[in-house]
Amino acid sequence: MQETDDNNSSLVTRHSSLLKVAVIGVGSIGAHHARIFSELPHADLIGVVDINLAHAQKIASKYNCKAYKDYTEIMDIVDAVSIAAPTTMHFQIAMDFLKNSKDILIEKPITSTIKEAEKLISEADKRHLIIQVGHLERFNSGVSLISNMIKKPKFIESRRLSPFLGRSTDVDVTLDLMIHDIDIILSLVKSEISDIKATGSKVLTDNIDIAYAWLEFEDGCIAEAVASRIANEKVRELKVFQHNTYLNLNYQTQEVTCYKKLNGKVGKKIKKTEGKEPLKEQLSSFVQCVKNRTRPVVSGIEGKKALQVALKISEMIKHGNSTKNK
Questions:
Q1: Strands 19-24 and 80-83, sheet pairing
Q2: Dihedral of the CA atoms 101, 106, 109, 112 (nearest 10)?
Q3: pLDDT tens digits, residue range 98-140?
Q4: Which of 88, 156, 169, 172 is the most exposed place for a label (fewest CB within 10 A)?
């Protein structure tokens, strides 16, 4: 667990004042990080960094902070950073900040390889620093709601489909989209994976654009995950089947539909949530974890586990290798 003693003088500062934060990479996702950090009451957005300095300046002007082209320029003036750069850059940027005793939030996936993730986790543990991984759906109100309704799932089905947007094509769809559902499934099923089957294909990019995965768990639960970035419409859906109950979560509306058999009849209830913005909840949680030195909901360990499964699925699609009993 990435926690720290409050004896460190820098941590005393974090507890007693606004947390000085910066965003590394202000593309489509990072720009939203900047927006939200500028609004959070316990955070002070001191800068944004992007290799496209003109774009960084545009974002900085919008949220009243400074723009930088090189992240090393802010190393000594921040308490924590949010890394929303391309996945291939996650490891180097994260390691540089950890070695300078800074807490970090890394957009998913945590890194490109398991070895890189393990090195970051080790460095954070050694320095008593916090790593939080940006698995956004953990902060979806609908996920919190459905989690409390699940007892012993028998079958889980997830669908995450998007029209082709031309972004995040540097990685497979398993790392771009499916990894969200892998993380959620791993959090819901309290058992180890015993087998994985997968298929998919490259279509519009040089990486996998559509993927189907079948996960079997030691406790008998089975999960099917479908992800595509070449669909006709945007779909974000999770279905959970358990004894006498079928639950359906719409991630976009954050609503859960519950079908339950009681006294021989099946009743239907739609449960709505407050509909909070998941990214705002995620970043607010990160700020509180840093200030209070508490373990993130999705630490580096959970980020690594989701990455491990996503990479196995990609490997199977590319080479057809079995992962049974591994």
A1: parallel
A2: -40
A3: 999 999 999 999 999 999 999 999 999 999 999 999 999 999 9
A4: 88
| 284 & 229 share domain | no
Same domain, 185 and 91: no
222-228 vs 155-161, strand pairing mode: parallel
Whole-angstrom Cα distance, residue 27 to residue 51?
Answer: 10
| Residue 72: CATH number of its domain | 3.40.50.720
Identify the segments of the chain with pLDDT beneath 50.
1-15, 322-323, 325-326
In SS3 terms, the chain reads as CCCCCCCCHHHHHHHHCCEEEEEECCCCCHHHHHHHHHHCCCEEEEEEECCCHHHHHHHHHHCCCEEECCHHHHCCCCCEEEECCCHHHHHHHHHHHHHCCCEEEEECCCCCCHHHHHHHHHHHHHHCCCEEEECHHHHCHHHHHHHCCCCCCCEEEEEEECCCCCCCCCCCHHHHHHHHHHHHHHHHCCCCEEEEEEEEEECCCCCEEEEEEEEEECCCCEEEEEEECCCCCCEEEEEEEECCEEEEEECCCCEEEEEEEECCEEEEEEECCCCCCHHHHHHHHHHHHHHHCCCCCCEHHHHHHHHHHHHHHHHHHHHCCCCCCC
Closest of 182, 212, 180, 181 to residue 197, by C-alpha: 212
Specify the pLDDT at position 274. 85
Q: Which single residue is written with the structure tokens 């996503």? A: 310
- Say yes or no: 124 and 202 in one domain: no
Structure tokens that stand for 24 in this block: 């590394």
User: Is residue 123 within 8 Å of 95, Cβ to Cβ?
Assistant: yes
Nearest in space to 189 (alpha carbons), one of 232, 150, 140? 150
pLDDT by residue (tens digit) across 21-43?
999 999 999 999 999 999 999 99
68 and 152, same domain (yes or no): no
